[in-house]
Amino acid sequence: MVRNLCMRITSSLALGTFFFSLALVGAACSSSRESFPGDDKPDAGNLGPALNGDASTTVSVTFSGTIYAPNGTLPMANALFYVTAKEPEAIPEGAYCDQCVTLPDDTFGVSGADGAFEFTAKMPAGKAWIVTQKGQFRRVREVEIKKEETIKVDKDDSTLPGRSSPSEGDTIPKMAVLKDASDYDHIYESLNKLGIYDFVTSDRNMLSDGDEVMKYQVLFVPCGSKADPLSANAGIKANLQKFVQSGGKLYVTDWSYEFVRQPFPNFLNWEGATSTLGSGASGAEWDAPATATDQGLADWLAATGDTSFEVKGNWTTINAINTVPGTNPAGDAVDITPKVWVTANKNGQQRPTTVSFENQCGRVLFSTYHTESGFGGSTTLLAQEKALLYVLLEVGVCLGERPGVR
Questions:
Q1: Residue closest to 256 by CA, chosen among 238, 281, 283
Q2: Three-class SS of residue 352?
Q3: Please, which contacts does 234-242 make with residues 24 or more away whose CB atoms are closer than 8 Å?
Q4: pTM score, whole prediction
Q5: Binning pLDDT at 50, 70 and 90, where does residue 305 land?
Q6: What is the pLDDT of residues 105-126, one digit of tens each?
Q7: How far apart are CA 137 and CA 194, in angstroms?
Q8: Helix (H) or strand (E) segment spanning residue 253
Q9: Which residues lie below 8 Å from residue 251, measured CB to CB, with a gap of 6+?
Q10: Is the pLDDT of residue 31 over 50?
Q11: Contacts of residue 404, Cβ cutoff 8 Å, sequence gap at least 6
Q12: By three-state DSSP, how is residue 256 classified?
């Protein structure tokens, strides 16, 4: 028996993905995503040598451990650990449509809110590969299976990588942080605190080069000028639309909201926004008690010590989320409603503060607040920075159903 895997194995084997896969599922798909008619998912015969074969030629091996974020301290929820007798192929480069594939039952485990996993596989003795993955964050290690045993997976082998080193079996998505001269939201500092170091920092003029944009899998546009004319440039809007529709993940914060509103209109309404560029950007910061409305995120934050938290450094306010007609990766007409991950109490009203929506093969993620809450320099990992990692991985998951999510 096989199950659809919400993480790309990207191989003739067969994974995983996962970001935020965010990317914020356990193989983990965004909770609003369903399988699409016409998805071409390989069956077990395409996955390489079976691991759950005849008992007379296989041994039972139990794998257990804890999956960690790249910083090595945060346990990671809804991440995938699997074993295969065939080395996984490379994850594709650039923006691509990440369709879910299948894995045989009893060859994988999905981590809980505390990052822990355990499963028993029946597999042939000999060379095998163990894989820790969420989205395009993947660590592959070779092992030798000699007998029936219980293997406690070493922490180094079950920690998601923070840098790409394909020769060593480590892959992360190709990412770029596109800031302007104002440089308000130091999202690159948040990524470093989360253990992620392998990304490009560039200015936003890169968005005018469509070929360059398509080389990436995640683009961050952190808070900057509230009326950046680049956001309304026709060529840049077309490049961002193509990037997302092809499978890219676009992450935007705060005053940079026009990089969502201009290329992807109607999904969100911002307080004060008119036809004037930047009119939805507030002149006053607000902080507020927050609620994780996604249960998986709430469980994970609680498991990692944040049973209550604030979102700090909000400079925009979302008035409404809207259902918009669109198309799914199979070309079918669908209604798309943004998913709300976090809300905050502003003047007695719960306002969406972290939202994402799908657009064909990709996703757009927006938060009303700075990722790191101020103007940088803090070494403390805030709850909202942890939420960044979770959501980033979750929105990076493949397209299809997800197995075993806890």
A1: 281
A2: strand
A3: 235/208, 235/210, 236/207, 236/208, 236/263, 237/262, 237/263, 238/210, 238/263, 239/207, 239/208, 239/209, 239/210, 239/213, 240/207, 240/213, 240/264, 241/359, 242/210, 242/213, 242/214
A4: 0.85
A5: very high
A6: 889 999 999 999 999 999 888 9
A7: 13
A8: strand 249-253
A9: 218, 219, 220, 221, 365, 366, 392
A10: no
A11: 3, 26, 27, 108, 109, 110
A12: helix
Judge whether 372 and 382 are in contact, CB under 8 Å: yes
Q: For residue 152, what are the β-bridge partners?
A: 64
* Residue 170 CA: distances (Å) to CA of 205, 218, 274: 30, 17, 46
Q: In what order do the strands lie in the sheet with 59-66?
A: 116-123, 59-66, 149-152
- Beta carbons of 230 and 236 less than 8 angstroms apart: yes
pLDDT band at 200 (very low <50, low <70, confident <90, very high): very high
d(CA 40, CA 136): 20
Residue 287 token pair: 């902080």
- List the beta bridge partners of residue 309: 290
Give the Cα separation of 36 and 105 in Å (integer): 22
User: What count of other Cβ atoms lies within 10 Å of the Cβ of residue 399?
Assistant: 27
Q: Which of 25, 128, 21, 26 is nearest to 83 (CA)?
A: 128
Largest distance between two CA atoms of the chain: 71
| Pair 392, 191: CB distance under 8 Å | no
pLDDT on residue 30 = 31
Residue 271 has pLDDT above 70, yes or no: yes
